[in-house]
Amino acid sequence: MFKKKIFHHSLVTHLAKGVVLGVLSSNIIGIAISSYILYNTVSIEYIKLWIVISTVISILRLITTKTFLNTPDSRYDIKYIRFSMLLLFFNALLYSHIIYCAILYNAEVSNIFLIVILIISLVAGSVSTLGAIFPAFAIFAGTTLFLLILNLSMMELESVDTLLLLVSVFSIFFIISGYKNNIFLKSHILLEERQLASQDKLKKINDTLETRVKEEVAKNTKQLQLLQQQSKMAQMGEMIGAIAHQWRQPLNVISTSIQNLKYDYQDGFLKDGKYIKEFIDKNKKTIGFMSSTIDDFRNFFRVDKERVNFHILKSTQSVIDMQSIQLKEYDIDITLSGEEFEFYGFASEYQQVILNLVSNAKDMLIDEKIENPMIKVVAKDGIVTIEDNAGGMPDDIIDRIFEPYFTTKEQGKGTGMGLYMSKIIIEDNMGGELSVENIESGAIFTIDFNKDY
């Protein structure tokens, strides 16, 4: 009778929910009212029969509906519709039999009129409860109204023609209303499903986008870690070079002292305790300097796990001390001034930035062969500036100076990562701001901690 999937599952579900209301109105309330109206007119056997038939239909409708609603998919849609239409047909026959008995037993016209109103009311109610599946509504409403008109036509009353006309008009009106309600429900459910499909599609897009964002964030984080490692390795090479310079002179001093000690021993001067004490003090001081250099080196490359309060001037001076020998080799004068202040952050990362900026200024001064080269570092009021007199940078370079892999140095002499990583450390890791600008004598880098200071 019906092709598979001819009815939308949502419409069948709507019908099933309407059936529950229909059982209450047509099979319980309707039969109870009819029995009460005709109790003194119709045989009690007929009334019992109506109640039994109505009870059986009610139970069957409720059981099949509950079973259907507990099934999440549409596999039982057609079977449910077929069985429901069969029960609706028997329901229509039941009300036809009631009106037939009322006419047969010559019930009062007023009682017959009440039964007619009751039946028409039930048909009117079925517009909303059964309208989701128009054939189901048509079976119940059409059969009920047709048999009602047929039974009324057997009455021998002067007013029966008027009553038949009214019932016929109501029948046409209800059928049209049921059809329109069916069209409306179809459109509404289709629109609702489109909205749900759009929401589902949007959710999938959002989920996919969220996954891609997470993947990109993880990828960028990993890449940033690699860049940090590359920058760290480059700095380590530079620091090892700095230590080599720092140690060359002390090692020469120790070597000379040992050589002199050998000669003095041969000449018999070691008997003088004062001489030995001077020798020990001198070399102890030299070894202490070398030890402090190692400590500075270790502190510089320490991986800070937690933020701590550290002194800006002290940390800056530590970096300058490690660079001092190299700077002296090129007659570069470096000064540090200002006022000590504390900052809550990563001390070793801050020192990496200072090393990058001082090294960058040193390289500029050497490349430009500046007379009286100078680097001026000032720390005050949450701001650290590193200024040089190397003549500044061209506009096309200064605009790109913080880009990754951008370098003006010869191949093999620079990675282009130092200033990029410095900006990442100051702005992303420490909440500050790193900027650069040309001044009259050269360039000045500014670290501004005032956002968190």
Structure write-up:
The protein contains 11 helices and 7 strands. It has 453 residues and is α+β, with helices and mostly antiparallel strands. The strands form 2 sheets. Strands 2-4-5-7-6 form a 5-stranded mixed sheet. Strands 1-3 form a two-stranded antiparallel ribbon. α1 (9-37) packs parallel to α3 (77-104). The protein is rod-shaped. Residues 1-5 have low confidence and may be disordered.
Please state roughly what percent of the residues sit in beta strands, choosing from under 5%, 5-15%, 15-25%, 25-35%, 35-45% or over 45%. 5-15%
Q: So what's the overall shape?
A: rod-shaped
What are the segments in which pLDDT stays under 50 over at least 5 consecutive residues? 1-5
CATH architecture of the domain at 303-453: 2-Layer Sandwich
How many H/I helices? 11
CATH top level class name of the domain at 303-453 = Alpha Beta
How would you summarize this macromolecular structure in one to three sentences?
The protein has 453 residues and is α+β, with helices and mostly antiparallel strands. The chain contains eleven helices and seven strands.
